[in-house]
């Protein structure tokens, strides 16, 4: 996407939206954006962003619109996008960066004249910080970017968003919206809940000062995200409530079993910690797995299957709107398994 002459619109210039805008500017992509904060508007304009007044103006100027706002704000923003699409008679591709996908896709279906223009997305990148001042143009490098492939997503538009993600350094994981929400409940939302719980236990401990003085890297790593943006954790938990509740119930039962083991029950304590080592080995193996990039033409089902195997798209090529397949370059270490 570097220097393509296309215009990318960004609605919201916080950590993710600001990082995306900066990454695109560094690649000579024209960025038009809107945000409510006057200081951020000024800083973004100084950085080279074309700052406009509202969503309507972004939709009118952009070829691809990224909604980089908190999940609770997406319904209202999608309604504004829908009104702008109808008013302008244009159909730029629209995507988002929210941490849940099924509810957002449903909102798009309600709000947009043609839901096929919407590609639900979620870059698996972030920090415990927030705002334009925390934005980093390298935020997405080496990270995964989930893109939902469920109907009615237009696969040609899907390829456009995939190309955007790859351009800023990410690898794209194709996924179904419901499968995405179940997976991130485990690997993203549950960690936030455990971080909040562990940090709250420290705050409530009668010997909190002593415990804090003795806390080392394991506790700092565990609770890092607990000190982040005050609404991010609650927003994610609420938006993905059912899937997260299932994960929390599972975690609670495992912790209860460990407590029984410590009291002399079964299974033995070693089994719980051994299961943890096996799980970490799965994660390490997935991150270490290598595969030779290969070209492929994949339809909707093929893309979803690639994602389930842990495969990623590392290049996407334009195929035109209404395409039944997309031309992609993939790494697929799970194919042999």
Task: Provide an overview of this structure.
With 337 residues, this protein is α/β, with parallel strands linked by helices. It has a domain at 7-177 and 298-309: NAD(P)-binding Rossmann-like Domain (Rossmann fold), CATH 3.40.50. It is built from 13 helices and 12 strands. It has helices at 15-26, 38-47, 55-61, 71-88, 102-111, 155-167, 177-204, 208-214, 217-223, 232-239, 241-262, 269-288, 300-308, and strands at residues 7-11, 30-34, 50-51, 64-67, 93-96, 118-119, 121-123, 144-148, 171-175, 294-298, 312-317, 326-331. The protein has a 6-stranded parallel β-sheet with strand order 3-2-1-4-5-6, with helices on both faces. It has a 3-stranded mixed β-sheet with strand order 7-8-9. Helix 3 (55-61) crosses helix 4, helix 4 (71-88) packs parallel to helix 5 (102-111) and helix 7 packs across helix 11 (241-262). The longest helix is centred in the middle third of the chain and has 28 residues, at 177-204. The model has no long low-confidence stretch (mean pLDDT 93). One of its GO terms (biological process) is tyrosine biosynthetic process. It comes from Iamia majanohamensis. Residues 6-291 form the Prephenate/arogenate dehydrogenase domain. Belongs to the prephenate/arogenate dehydrogenase family. Pfam families: PDH_C, PDH_N.
